[in-house]
Amino acid sequence: MKLPLLHHVKLWLKIITLIIGVIVSAVLLADLSISLSTSSQLYKNIETLPSQETALVLGTSKYIRRTLNPYYQYRIDAAIELYKQNKVTHFLLSGDNAHRSYNEPWTMKRDLLKAGIPEENITLDYAGFRTLDSVQRATQIFDANSLTIVTQKFHCQRAVFIANHFSMDTVCLVVPSPTGWANTKIRIREILARTKALLDLYIFNVQPKFLGPKEPIKHEPMPIE
Question: 181-202 and 2-38 are packed helices; what angle lies between their axes, rounded to 10 degrees?
Fold first, then answer.
């Protein structure tokens, strides 16, 4: 009696191991495919970055436990430099507006205003609860089909992949990432986020939490170089 039971246990262990292997392989393949398919649209150097009318700056918290979040600061610094070098004329600041004391778009706007960027060159998207929402709302609500996305490399790849799905003309300015364990943890989470993005786009057809009427961005003329 013990032998058949042991045989069944081993069989189930093999099946479970196979299933786990397939899932892990699929997750890693999704991560790799997103990285490879977007590589030509990522730029580390502002000088070689194509000019676009609008930059989509993806939000994150400015502070983490009362300490300035380097992910946030790198994005803001890059956005300011884009404007100074006449690479963009308008900013779409997209992020979470969870409650009165936490407002990613307004926080970004305040820092851009301090840097001398005119208020009329800034549009806020308070419903950018996640990357899919930010990118899809950029085209469907704000009529911004050509964009320079501003964020870290791991985030750039997923954001551009989503934009490509919606036939948008996008490039991404890759801003620095902090080093160390914190960045490693975020990169691990990103692998799972990419799998979810593929499922949302191709299986579940997930829509942004909020859409609504169009609010086309009014662009300032691009400077003549």
Answer: 90
